[in-house]
Amino acid sequence: MTELRRVQTETLDLAYFEIGDGFPVVLLHGYPDDANTYKYVWPKLAELGFRVIVPHLRGHGQTRIRDGHARVGQQGAIAQDLFDLLDALSLQQVGLVGYDWGGRAACIAAALQPDRVKFLVAGHGYLIQDTLSAPAPSADQEIERAYWYQWYLCTARGAAGVQQNRKVMGRALWDEWSPPWVFSNEDFEECAASWDNPDYVDVVVHSYRHRNGEAASDPRYDALERALAEKPKIAVPTIVLHGADDRVSFARLTADHATFFTGPYERRVLPGVGHFLPREAPDAVVQAVLDLQSRA
């Protein structure tokens, strides 16, 4: 039985699902999504003998930023939340699965704390960002158009828009980013309820403004952001999953990502799959975990 549990860290009252016993695997969701993205993955992993832990990232679901702490969404904050969760649950070593925001946190943990990460399933490849350098526009206009939501959120109108129309915007992104995927209204509504979190708007707006040089870093994470600006390589065994029909994190962008990985590495491009890997291809996620566990 899957239980929603809570743990307190220095900055968060953090809510997470847990099911199963055995070697711990932490599953990390992306944007715009929530922990329930893994609901077709976690029972299968539990049946296969894993202890599965699925947190709601800051700004989502029942997770709350504690009083006195900034409502920021930069990569350093999401990664530190993961480190804090591992500490709070006394997890010495885990497998990590993540995509989008969650994939970035998983990549950061694998790069900076490799002794704690037995293996990594990385949706959309190597996602660590250099937030200290001014981002350059891409000559690839398909990418520039696909990132409209980031440019939008860098404006006052965008912040008001996500405040007033978060469900409409989220549904538009689901439709745009995964054209082949036919999702149920029930699944969408379940996920969208997670965006009613009082921290959601501030976290989302800061995430995209910070990475685009339009918002300051929380000083708490400055040292971490400096380390990440060096684009540290990942040595833990890794399988990258990428949807062939992803219309925002285009599969062609990870074709040369092997250079960021110094350990065992494999890239799997999934036909007919878009951006939301755990929802669209849960069996591929489970298989990647099994393959890495068997090789470790």
TrEMBL record:
<dbReference type="InterPro" id="IPR000073">
    <property type="entry name" value="AB_hydrolase_1"/>
</dbReference>
<protein>
    <submittedName>
        <fullName>Alpha/beta hydrolase</fullName>
    </submittedName>
</protein>
<feature type="domain" description="AB hydrolase-1">
    <location>
        <begin position="24"/>
        <end position="277"/>
    </location>
</feature>
<keyword id="KW-0378">Hydrolase</keyword>
<dbReference type="InterPro" id="IPR029058">
    <property type="entry name" value="AB_hydrolase_fold"/>
</dbReference>
<dbReference type="GO" id="GO:0016787">
    <property type="term" value="F:hydrolase activity"/>
</dbReference>
<dbReference type="InterPro" id="IPR000639">
    <property type="entry name" value="Epox_hydrolase-like"/>
</dbReference>
<dbReference type="Pfam" id="PF00561">
    <property type="entry name" value="Abhydrolase_1"/>
</dbReference>
